[in-house]
Amino acid sequence: MFIRKTSRPRTVTLKDGSILSIADLPADQTRWVASRKAAVVNAVAAGLLSREEVIQRYQLSGEEFDSWVLAVERYGKSGLKVTSLQKFRHS
């Protein structure tokens, strides 16, 4: 197996001490659950991927990704759950 040479980091350490790598991110076409959204948001926040790379790789709109980031900032990982969106919108 060959590893591609790249200028970006191969792994990053998150605030909670866990290590995140490209292999830990969801597949390109996937069903979006809160844990997968959080992994992608954490990857961008830690510098593993850029916002543009995520939008292109997962075919997201900029607004959708920005809403994930905002939900994590305000409510944590639970803010990414679809059922929680309704609860948080009213508060």
Automatic annotation (TrEMBL):
Molecular functions per Gene Ontology: sequence-specific DNA binding
Domain of life: Bacteria
Annotated protein name in UniProt: DUF1153 domain-containing protein
Organism encoding this protein: Paracoccus zhejiangensis
Species classification: Bacteria, Pseudomonadati, Pseudomonadota, Alphaproteobacteria, Rhodobacterales
